[in-house]
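Hey L., structure's done. Input below.
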Amino acid sequence: NTLVSGSAGNQIIVLNYLLVSAGTVNATFSDGTTAFSGAIPLVANGGASFPGDVDSPAFKVTEGEDLILELSDAIQVSGHLAYLVVPV
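Output:
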């Protein structure tokens, strides 16, 4: 599940996020190759969040790569995130 498409010469910086799941699933933020979080276990109507900001971001995506949310099963996961796209 691509959340933000990457672009050459730029880096995605995720400041904060909130995830809420419709069922039991593990969610992992990655670029398809590198995981930026461990598996985040979610249960029905449960969630996870990271309340970061510009001075304390959640993570930085590899230059030019997409931000992807990998799910261990076909379960609806909703939420929001705040991010920046900056030149490297």
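DSSP finds no helices and eight strands in the chain. Strands lie at 2-4, 10-21, 25-30, 40-42, 47-50, 59-60, 67-71, 77-87.

-- N.
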